[in-house]
Write a structure and sequence with these properties.
The complex is a heterodimer of chains A (511) and B (355). Chain A has 511 residues and is of the alpha/beta class. Chain A has 18 helices and 22 strands. Chain A has helices spanning 45-52, 75-80, 98-104, 115-128, 144-157, 174-189, 201-207, 230-238, 248-251, 299-306, 329-334, 344-348, 355-359, 377-390, 407-420, 437-452, 464-470, 493-500; strands spanning 7-16, 19-29, 34-38, 60-65, 68-70, 83-86, 162-166, 193-198, 210-215, 218-224, 258-268, 274-284, 288-292, 314-319, 322-323, 337-340, 370-371, 374-375, 425-429, 456-461, 473-478, 481-487. In chain A, β1 (7-16) and β2 form a beta hairpin. The termini of chain A are far apart. The relative contact order of chain A is 0.11. Chain B has 355 residues and is mostly helical. Chain B folds into 2 domains: 1-34 and 320-355, no CATH class; 58-317, ABC transporter involved in vitamin B12 uptake, BtuC. Chain B contains 14 helices and 2 strands, in the order βααααααααααααααβ. A two-stranded antiparallel ribbon of chain B has the order 1-2. Chain B is globular. Chain B starts with a strand and ends in a 6-residue tail after the last strand. The chains are: A alpha/beta (511), B mainly alpha (355). Chains A and B meet through α11, α12 and β18 of A and α8 and α9 of B.
Chain lengths: 511, 355
């Protein structure tokens, strides 16, 4: 270990109006070390890292690089000091290509840029780390998983010495995660300091050399890997015990009639190629159907076709026997089909409007929230208060823009709104992505509660644990098709993993 | 001593009202510097403007005359701006509204007032609305940017009026001036006594109240708010964006068309070139300064009318008419710039630095 830490953050305080996001935080990052930052949502991890990357200026405290005190006035200063970060919410320009996005963050010496050389370098870099992305494709054409690859490549491309990754594994398959970990280790061995922000204890324990736990803006503890264990960390993080795992028997129940029949549905993706390729699946009332798969294999297209947001090119969708293919989003909503999108602030919510205005979003036109031409404001306020209370949404005021809320609370508000509309069918994408353990537990409980109320649920997730825990049946999606299906009790992780990678070994097994 | 900015959580209503007022005062001080540099006493200049606009019965009447079209066009563009539809075409829609209303008077000159005026209002609104709708249709059909199309359609609308008054609609008894025949008395909006200020003021009051209700309370107001705030979420919620774009641009244009009708029917009494000294463009600033709030639009329109009428007074003092335009520009600059004061809390910190 080097004597002087590469980065030393001393007594960092960051105050936002009404909250102290960081309170007297000390953090040392050494080259050759992978340092995990653990903590619930709102515990101040992202704020701390935003300070280190120059996005925020600390209210108090100092940052030293190689023992020298530095002031970062902008992200550029941080980049100049070799600090790079992959954010949870990607900072990419959608209308630029991958190569243009990567070049944008460089402090190029020359005025002219050789596009071909950049493309070549990126391709090479991508191949080296097994993260191939076509440098010439536009970012808006990429799936969330691919976008993250671009972010990581961008950081690698600019030769950062301090690599910060915020929830990097959320969008990766188990195999990809393993590869990423191997690469992060390689980077650490090359002398980088890696900061790994995560909620997943197994990953932290697998990867990290040092673990700092944050709680409510303060350092709750800082350990060497070998000085701690899983339960110690959980307690440190949330200060209470969490029940891990639901009783499987509890949730298996007699399933009702078939709610949804999707037959050979096909649709184009944003790039114009087949996103859904004759996909077939059906779901019964009270059933949770888990769709496992690597993101970008047609999950979003499936949800959007179902929600009426994307036209299909073939096939049919029947809801309680009624043909709903080609209906408008409004007609779909009226049939009490609920879609919980992966992009909460981008699609599911209105970041600049308040909680009330968000709660009535999908039902503002019904008797529930309106009288004739008029919005029934008092009903909206009442409903919002009820949702906030029932789903334990923590917010300053229901009249504040929702963008000020943390990820977990946003998801609770979004799910709360959808559940309060008493859906008969819900398709929910990556519901716990980016949430902490407490919020994950809450979201899972909500889904199980909804199942008990006889709602048919399609749960799209990348986490096999989550699907195994919640789903009755599992289908693996690959290249726009359900490659194989099984009951979740009989789920064989290896076989599902193989299907996720598109490998079908045993044809007979498919049926 | 160090100044820091902190994003404020709650949008404080008092500061939202106070800050623009101080910004307007700051812009007055800013312009005063120019007056001093050109050798004028700023106090004298401002008091001349003020007394010109508000110091006499005639001045007050003129100020209201100018306020009416500004407020109506301001309401019109605000409807579109709420949806992030940049309708720059109020001027053209104003002319088309005036043109259609004139058509009614020329074609049915003997209608009684209780038929004539409603017919003029309806055709004026329809013409302005269709002029806006056309741009919206281009947008929904071929993704034509409405900023360009509405701006270009201004010139078409203005020149179309020229074409008519220089040609087919020219008054045969008008000594060859490019004017239509004067409107029959039944086509004129009543005025208050012998003053020029006319019943168009009621249009302003009623429409401001109606649109305040629409924006704040109605379902459609909510829909437009959602579309303006996050179009992806709007689509997700089943809101038909295409229909709403068409509707909003129609209503936006219709209000500007009504402004045109009110102007020819209340003030000019005929159709002629240059019926608007740029009301449609100034209305964009008015709506923006008022943060698209209908009642604030009326207030800001009144303020701009004062500057406009006061500006005439300045010309008698030997100052150019551009002085009024400079004041308007400075106000926009300061009010928009002062936005930072309502969004951020400014703190003065005594900073002890060891360096």
């Amino acid at each position: 270990m080097a004597d002087t830490p590469l980065i030393s953050m001393h007594n960092i305080v960051k105050r936002f109006p009404g909250v102290t996001a960081n309170d007297q935080i000390n953090l040392e990052l050494c080259s050759g070390q992978i340092h995990a930052l653990l903590g619930e949502n709102g515990s101040g991890k992202t704020t701390l890292m935003s300070i280190l990357t120059g996005l925020y200026r600390p209210t108090e405290g100092t940052i030293s690089v190689n023992g020298q005190e530095k002031k970062f006035n902008s992200p550029k200063d941080a980049i100049d000091n070799g600090i790079g970060m992959v954010h949870q919410h990607f900072k990419l320009i959608e209308s630029f290509t991958v190569a243009e996005n990567i070049v944008l963050s460089q402090n190029s010496q020359s005025f002219l840029l050789s596009h071909d050389a950049v493309v070549k370098d990126i391709t090479k870099l991508g191949e080296k780390y097994g993260m191939s992305v076509d440098p010439k494709s536009y970012v808006w054409q990429l799936s969330v998983g691919e976008k993250q690859r671009v972010e990581i490549l961008r950081m690698l491309y600019s030769n950062s010495k301090v690599l910060i990754l915020d929830e990097p594994t959320a969008v990766l398959t188990p195999q990809e995660t393993r590869e990423l970990f191997a690469n992060l280790r390689k980077m650490a061995n090359d002398g980088c300091a890696v900061v790994f922000i995560s909620h997943k204890l197994n990953e932290v324990l697998e990867l990290a050399d040092k673990i700092t736990v944050l709680r409510a803006g303060k350092v709750a503890g800082c350990f060497e890997r070998n000085d701690t264990n899983r339960y110690g960390l959980i307690e440190m993080m949330i200060g209470r015990d969490i029940k891990v795992g639901h009783s499987k028997e509890d949730q298996r129940q007699v399933l009702g009639e078939t709610v949804l029949e999707i037959n050979n549905i096909s649709a184009l993706n944003d790039v114009g190629t087949l996103g859904l390729n004759e996909l077939t699946l059906n779901v019964k009332a009270g059933e949770i159907y888990g769709v496992a798969g690597v993101s970008g294999n047609g999950q979003r297209e499936l949800a959007e076709v179902l929600a009426g947001l994307r036209p299909n090119t073939g096939g049919s969708i029947k809801f309680y026997g009624e043909e709903i293919t080609g209906m408008s989003p409004k007609e779909i909503i009226q049939r009490r089909i609920s879609y919980v999108p992966e992009d909460r602030l981008g699609m599911g919510l209105l970041p600049n409007l308040d909680a009330c205005e968000n709660v009535i979003l999908k039902e503002y036109g019904t008797d529930k929230y309106s009288k004739g031409w008029k919005i029934n404001k008092s009903a909206a306020i009442e409903a919002t208060r009820a949702i906030v209370k029932k789903f334990d949404v923590r917010l300053g005021s229901i009249f504040q823009p929702v963008k000020m809320m943390s990820g977990g609370n946003l998801q609770k508000l979004l799910l709360g709104r959808e559940i309060a509309s008493h859906p008969k069918l819900m398709i929910v994408l990556y519901p716990v992505r980016g949430l902490d353990i407490g919020a994950i537990e809450a979201v899972h409980k909500l889904l199980l509660q909804l199942k008990k109320e006889n709602t048919a649920i399609i749960l799209v997730s990348e986490e096999l644990d989550e699907i195994a825990e919640l789903a009755d049946r599992v289908g693996v999606i690959f290249n726009g098709k359900i490659l194989g299906e099984c009951s979740s009790i009989a789920m064989d992780t290896e076989r599902v993993g193989a299907l996720m990678a598109g490998i079908i070994e045993d044809k007979e097994d498919m049926a | 001593m160090k100044i820091t900015f902190q994003k404020s959580v709650a949008q404080n209503t008092t500061s939202q009202i106070l800050v623009p007022i101080f910004a307007v005062l700051a812009s007055l001080i800013f312009c005063a510097i120019f007056f001093v540099l050109t050798g004028k006493d700023p106090i004298e200049v401002y008091s001349a403007m003020f007394s010109g606009a508000l110091g006499s019965e005639y001045g007050i009447s003129e100020t209201f005359v100018k306020m009416i079209p500004l407020a109506l066009c301001g309401l019109g563009v605000a409807v579109a701006f709420r949806m992030r539809l940049w309708n720059i075409g109020a001027e053209g829609q104003f002319y088309m509204g005036a043109c259609a209303a004139t058509w009614v008077t020329l074609t049915f000159p003997s209608l009684p007032f209780f038929l004539m005026l409603p017919a003029m209002i309806l055709t004026g609104a329809a013409a302005g609305g269709l002029w806006g709708l056309l741009a919206a249709w281009f947008k929904t059909k071929w993704q034509v940017d409405e900023i360009i199309s509405t701006l270009m359609m201004n010139y078409i609308g203005i020149l179309w009026v020229d074409f008519l008054v220089f040609g087919a609609w020219r008054d045969p008894n008008g000594k060859n001036f490019p004017l239509t025949a004067p409107f029959p008395a039944a086509a004129m909006l009543p005025t208050f006594g012998s003053l020029r200020v006319h019943y168009g003021i009621f249009f302003v009051i009623i429409l401001a109240a109606v649109f305040w209700w629409v924006f704040k309370k109605s379902k459609w107001g909510y829909e437009t708010l959602v579309i303006g705030s996050n179009p992806v979420a709007a689509r997700y919620a089943g809101i038909n964006i295409r229909d709403n774009v068409l509707l909003a641009m129609f209503i936006s244009g219709a209000l500007c068309g009504i402004a045109g009708m009110v102007e020819v029917s209340g003030v000019v009494g005929k159709l002629q070139p240059g019926i608007s000294p740029g009301y449609g463009y100034t209305a964009i600033i008015v709506a923006w300064l008022a943060r698209l709030h209908p009642f604030a639009i009326v207030g800001v329109a009144f303020l701009f009318a004062i500057i406009h009428v006061g500006g005439f007074m300045l010309q008698t003092m030997g100052m150019p008419s551009a002085t009024a335009t400079m004041l308007q520009g400075a106000m926009l600059f300061f009010v928009v710039g002062a936005d930072i004061l309502t969004k951020y809390e400014i703190k003065f910190v005594t900073h002890k630095e060891g360096e």
